[in-house]
Amino acid sequence: MKHLSVLAAAGLVLAACSPAEQVSTPEQPHASVDPYSFNENYSSYLQTLSSDEFEGRAPASEGEKKTVAFVEGKFREWGLKPYDAENNTYQQQVPLVRMLPTQVSPMSFSADDLEAFEYRTEMMAWSPRVQENIELTDSEMVFVGYGIVAPEFGWSDYEGLDVEGKTVVMLVNDPGYDTLDPEVFNGKAMTYYGRWTYKFEEAARQGAAGAIVIHETGPAGYGWGVVAGGSPMRFDLARENKNMDRVAIEGWMTQESADTLFARLGSSYEEMRKAAQQADFKPVSLDTSMSISVATKFDYLNSPNLIGYIEGKSKPEEHVIYMAHWDHMGVDPINPDDGIYNGAQDNASGTAGVMALAEFFASQPQPERSVVFVLVTAEERGLLGSDWYADNPMLPLSKAVGGINTDVLNVYGPMRDMVVVGHGNSEMEEYLAKYVEQQDRYIAPEPTPEAGSFYRSDHFNLAKRGVPMLYAKGGNDHVEFGEEYGKQKRAEYVQVAYHKPADEFDPEWDLRGVQQDLWLYYWVGQELANSGDWPNWYAGNEFRGIRDASASERQ
To answer: Which conformational region is residue 147 in: left (phi greater than 0), alpha (psi within -120 to 50 degrees), or beta?
Structure first.
């Protein structure tokens, strides 16, 4: 095969490059390095982080202490500058609040012909506010379509509407998904406006008291069991305002529940969904008010982001960011067989990747711009560590050239394709593409853009503050076994191991694929760290305006 022969020939040119060797970024980098040997220590870092000794790396646990000690020790060994030079620490403490609902009432209605919706089976609700007792009484309900205000798409579901004190009910995803029209939003590919997190944020900005998203499996990307199953415990950042700027009640209702509300108006869920797809859609009163109460217990804890960096020689404030989340789900004490959620792929693989990159960069000539390595906490609790970093960055985000996120890396061997999650978003892809080509590979868009995966990992918190972010990894088209093999492996992981104790290190994994991708991450970051380039979001992207607004700070 052509791909195999080129890569094999490249491997014969030089022996594997150890971190101590200096490697430039030549015009044809694959011709001067072994593509499968970026850092020989990667496997060791992956195995250590996902070992039983690290107890699933939950925030504020013994596993956290071991993770922090391991990463800090390596950062110090490699000579990375610490986040907090005054106290000589790589830790940025992230204040968290743990919130456990102890009682959620049914959702009752003022209309006599409506029976209350039951918790978990017909609706889910919680309060994001850090208050022990929240009661929302007789809040008028309004259907607001998708609950979106997107000027760049000429869309406003709230135009002319006062929702002060009201509860807004809205569809999941965005109009592009439902219409499948590539001219509407991003067509099938979800935008940020399709995420339920955005919808709650926008409802709060509009002054609503409650915000309820209607669940539908297709546009949500997961079934009702994901929404209503498992522990109701939630985490958030411990903010000074105790989240009083959020709506009092957030939640979901089933599609069947929504149908019940719409039927009283002589309509149906399908009819309302169809009507909401029009840009001139007008909100519809649901002709009832609702009441609900939530009681919650709270406790506070700290968990650190781990940040080390290499200072730029000539432009130290300008910087490239590598990011991964170190945390996973910890231990289930009542599991009689194996209660440790080792999180080997998710995300010891990405954490080990950033560590391997940091070790390699530290062995190379000092770059002109700074290179920052950020390992964040509490991703599994809602992207909280990256959110805190984005609000409290070590260097101004307006001076961030771009970033690369590593989450669930490819452990199944060398792939022909490099999948870009959120394909078509930013010029970061153009830097990646030329190095992918030099590995005799090709760029592929994610297979299910409608799932909104671009908005479900840590890079998103930097993206929505304007920083062009790249989230890419080896795909499914295996060099030796083909595309079906890769798809089968991915499907097996989701079914058997994702967020389960079975996500453990496997000595049979073929880590050549990770090594391939680490070279790509390095070459992209190395080029940006030694150039005067400022990649941007493509025109029409929802984050382009935010980036452009800070352009004067990059003069």
So the answer is: left
